[in-house]
Amino acid sequence: MAKNKTITIRQIGSPIRRPESQKKILTGLGLGKMHRTVEIEDTPEVRGAIAKLPHMVEVI
Length: 60
Hints:
The protein contains 2 helices and 3 strands, in the order βαβαβ. The protein is of the alpha+beta class and 60 residues long.
């Protein structure tokens, strides 16, 4: 059985005054408050969500 790879991301931008779609993407990633860090499974869907928010999240 293959190990699932994970990715750690940190929120560096505020969701205030952002479009609702960007706020929903942050919530879907498990973020929402500044400097919060989450570790989630590295999938193409997660990579796509990160690509839509390069100004708000960073990969650690």
